């Protein structure tokens, strides 16, 4: 979003994105509807405390909270540092702990645009055959998964998995208003798709989770995935990191991961 716009306009956009009326937001923030209206129209400039109250009720991401602070003439509240920054040493170590602790099962960390930050050693065998232009940094994991030269030809349930990923991406776009994600969605939705599956198809009745089923050198694998985020981050970068962890969904995959485990070198000790 453009942080040069008035703070009131930005707050109104977030309120509308959350499908709230001015009365809804006023009740949530325990202020008058008149006050909300005055802030949104620019007749009143919110104090730091008031702005923090509103963005908390609107569940605005940390990056965009900083933009709102700047638009209101206030100093940004949250730092934004690379994982390589010395101040982020413990956070980086925590990411590595989760990734390598999940072996021999695959796990990877991504940023807010689904660009790969780091992965454990169990992921590499699954990416065999993916061309370098898709893996070169910044490598986008959704592009790797759905590109016709990426994993897509080897995904056994491509239609189902594709619909699942695009659904997640639509939800993320609705929650953040991120233009980069919107552009990524348009790209992915234009990739070839199975004729018998629609991108808006919901999982079959009774299906608890959507499995990721892949043909690999280890055989046909089936995984379920979970997403981990940091609970109370005070840094923009950390708040935007998500760790995707994959678990075997059947006995054959469990056995294949045991075979893979025997071939892995000892995990590197963290230098962070």
Termini Cα gap: 33 Å
* Major sheet summary line: 5 strands, antiparallel
Q: Please report the first level of CATH classification, the CATH class of the largest domain.
A: Alpha Beta
Helix content: 40-55%
Structural class of the secondary elements? Answer: alpha+beta
Number of helices: 12
CA radius of gyration:
21 Å
Tell me the CATH topology of the largest domain. Beta-Lactamase
Q: How many discrete domains?
A: 2
Mean pLDDT, all residues = 91
Please state the second-level CATH architecture of the largest domain: 2-Layer Sandwich
Large-scale geometry: elongated
Helix/strand order? HHHHHHEEHHHHEEHEH
Strand content: 5-15%
Residue stretches low in confidence (pLDDT < 50, at least 5 long) are none
State the strand order across the main sheet.
2-1-5-4-3
Instruction: Count the beta strands.
Output: 5
């Amino acid at each position: 979003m453009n942080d040069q716009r008035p703070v009131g306009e930005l707050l109104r956009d977030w309120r509308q994105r959350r499908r709230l009326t001015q009365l809804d937001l006023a009740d949530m923030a325990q202020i008058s509807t008149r006050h909300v209206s005055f802030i949104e129209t620019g007749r009143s400039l919110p104090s730091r405390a008031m702005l923090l109250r509103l963005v908390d009720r609107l569940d605005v991401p940390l990056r965009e909270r900083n933009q709102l602070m700047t638009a209101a003439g206030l100093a940004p509240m949250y730092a934004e540092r690379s994982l390589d920054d010395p101040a982020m040493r413990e956070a980086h170590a925590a990411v590595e702990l989760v990734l390598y602790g999940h072996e021999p099962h695959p796990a990877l960390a991504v940023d807010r645009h689904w660009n790969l930050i780091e992965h454990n050693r169990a992921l590499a065998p699954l990416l065999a055959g993916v061309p370098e232009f898709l893996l070169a940094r910044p490598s986008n994991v959704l592009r790797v998964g759905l590109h016709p030269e990426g994993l897509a030809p080897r995904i056994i349930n491509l239609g189902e998995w594709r619909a699942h990923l695009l659904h997640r991406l639509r939800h993320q776009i609705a929650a953040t208003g991120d233009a980069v994600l919107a552009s990524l969605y348009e790209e992915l939705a234009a990739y070839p798709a199975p004729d018998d599956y629609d991108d808006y198809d919901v999982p079959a009745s009774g299906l608890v989770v959507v499995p990721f089923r892949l043909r690999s050198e280890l055989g046909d694998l089936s995984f379920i995935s979970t997403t981990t985020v940091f609970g109370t981050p005070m840094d923009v970068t950390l708040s935007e990191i998500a760790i995707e962890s994959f678990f075997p969904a059947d006995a054959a995959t469990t056995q294949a991961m045991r075979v893979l485990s025997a071939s892995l070198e000892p995990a590197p000790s963290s230098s962070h």
